[in-house]
Design a protein that fits this description.
Among the domains are: about 130 residues, Leucine Dehydrogenase, chain A, domain 1 (Rossmann fold, 3-Layer(aba) Sandwich); about 160 residues, 3-Layer(aba) Sandwich (Rossmann fold). The protein contains 13 helices and 14 strands. Strands 11-10-9-8-12-13-14 form a seven-stranded mixed β-sheet, with helices on both faces.
């Protein structure tokens, strides 16, 4: 890549190719894993509130299922592209393998602007999209979940649509459902909570601004944090870090950002209330306004990019002032930026590890749905913590063994596990 390539699929393939070469994968296995197994593009009509018909484009990409059913979210966003969905499906494969859960990777998306659509329009769009992709999804085939601008309500519509077409309730078709129809306790906070656990492990590893309370409980009093993206992942991570004693000094969303360096930083509970009321973090009392991407340059101990991909690039990586970058979003750092951050000794917790909490608890929800069980929230959080801690330790060990960075170490563990599964299963017929 002579000039920085911002195509998300090419970036993901580039990262995979580097790891495949180091692992000395056989040519056939390498070529097989660098491409999705199946791609479905659908163009479908939706009746709008004014009676007009609009045609939307949606995608469902299934990357690999050697280790189990395909798993991955569905996002609604005006900038969704097929290459983006391809990249995210591949990342899901590596993420599931890295944390040791029996899923493969998939992803879906619809090109739309949900902020300009009514709830009724979103419901009709969701039900039609699910009907279109129902030929390749199922509780033992491909299990969708929430992603950017989709939530528990959207998952409820998916469950109902799929179940109505089947003629009976199929709770295992989707995760991230409302609790009242079989969702798991702790699922809504899982990605942000997992991100928090990974940050705690990084601070423990460096013995930096970490205070042990008792047994396996820690506080991070005095650690400063900046969070880009104050949606489900960013807001939950910020709140949990705040409760652990961290000082949240800056946050941003799609409409802008705010900075507060005073004693104690931002009151996250009040900021969440403000966001719910105004739908933005902007104009929060006692703060300085920032542009959304300016938050990446704020001096802090921990930076959590939890927005979209390609936020930290070769153009701004030399201005990152954090000691630790925990990737709450998928693919927020480009390869060129990775190289720069590594040269500057900035510790990156890669997306396939930092934001794996969502798919881990999705797995818990899927298991509960299939077995008609209900786990307590404490059970869910403790199991999540155990997996995040183990996965972090395994990645750190691989980093030392291969003398490389965290992202490459995580990919090497994940790719090797998927490659082993492909080899052991063989080719049929």
């Amino acid at each position: 890549m002579t000039k920085e390539e911002l195509n998300p699929f090419k970036i993901t393939q580039h990262q995979f190719d580097k790891v495949a070469k180091r692992l000395e994968l056989k040519k056939g296995t390498h070529e097989y894993l660098r491409l999705p197994q199946r791609e479905l593009t659908v163009n479908f009509p939706v009746k709008m509130d004014d009676g007009s018909i609009e045609v939307f484009t949606g995608y469902r990409v299934q990357h690999n299922n050697a280790r189990g059913p395909y798993k991955g979210g569905i996002r609604y966003h005006p900038d969704v592209t097929l290459d983006e969905v391809r990249a995210l499906s591949m990342l899901m494969t590596w993420k599931c393998a890295l944390v040791g859960i029996p899923f493969g990777g998939a992803k879906g998306g619809v090109v739309c602007n949900p902020k300009k659509m009514s709830k009724e329009e979103l419901e009709r769009l969701t039900r039609r999209f699910v009907s279109e992709i129902s030929i390749i999804i199922g509780p033992d085939r491909d299990i969708p979940a929430p992603d950017v601008y989709t939530d528990a309500q959207v998952m409820a519509w998916i469950l109902d649509t799929y179940s109505m077409n089947k003629g009976y309730c199929v709770p295992g078709i989707v995760t991230g459902k409302p609790i009242s129809i079989g969702g798991s306790l702790g699922r809504n906070e899982a990605t942000g909570r997992g991100c928090m656990f990974s940050i705690i492990e990084a601070l423990k590893h460096f013995d930096y601004k970490i205070i042990k309370e008792d047994k396996d409980n820690y506080r991070i009093d005095g650690a400063t944090v900046a969070v880009q993206g104050f949606g489900n992942v960013g807001s939950v991570a910020a709140k949990l870090l705040f409760e652990k004693g961290a000082k949240i000094i800056a946050v941003s969303d799609s409409k802008g950002g705010i900075l507060k360096k005073g004693k104690g930083g931002l009151d996250i509970d009040k900021l969440i209330e403000h966001k719910l009321e105004t739908r933005s973090v902007s104009d929060f009392s006692g703060t300085t306004e920032l542009k959304s991407k300016e938050i990446l340059k704020v001096k802090c101990d921990i930076l959590v990019p939890a927005a979209l991909e390609n936020q930290i690039t070769g153009e701004n990586a030399d201005r990152i002032k954090a000691k630790i970058v925990a990737e709450g979003a998928n693919g927020p750092t480009t390869p060129e930026a990775d190289k720069i951050l590594s040269e500057r000794d900035i510790f990156v917790i890669p997306d396939v590890l930092a934001n794996a909490g969502g798919v881990i608890v999705s797995y818990f929800e899927w298991v509960q749905s299939l077995q008609q069980l209900v786990w307590t929230e404490r059970d869910v959080n403790e199991r999540l913590k155990e997996i995040m801690q183990r996965s972090f330790r395994e990645t750190i060990d691989a980093k030392g063994e291969y003398n490389t960075d965290m992202r490459t170490a995580a990919y090497m563990l994940a790719v090797e596990r998927v490659s082993d599964a492909v080899t052991i299963r063989g080719i049929f017929p």
